[in-house]
Amino acid sequence: MRVPSSITAEKFYATLGYQKIRDEFHGDERTIVMEKRLEG
To answer: Which UniProt keywords apply (predicted)?
Structure first.
């Protein structure tokens, strides 16, 4: 599962087991794409 994350939420998602995949830039705005593999 992939989610967009703000810079301030990156640590929050990391504690839930998400890993940073890449940074995306839209003008001056930076979004971090986080991913977590789901078993099932």
So the answer is: Transferase
Residue 6 falls within a domain, yes or no? yes
* Beta-strand relationship, 19-26 and 2-5: unpaired
Q: Which domain holds residue 19?
A: 2-31
Extended beta strands in the chain, E state: 2-5, 19-26, 29-35
Instruction: Tally the residues of the chain.
Output: 40
What pLDDT does 40 receive? 82
The SS3 assignment for 19 reads strand
Kindly state whether residue 7 falls inside one of the protein's structural domains.
yes
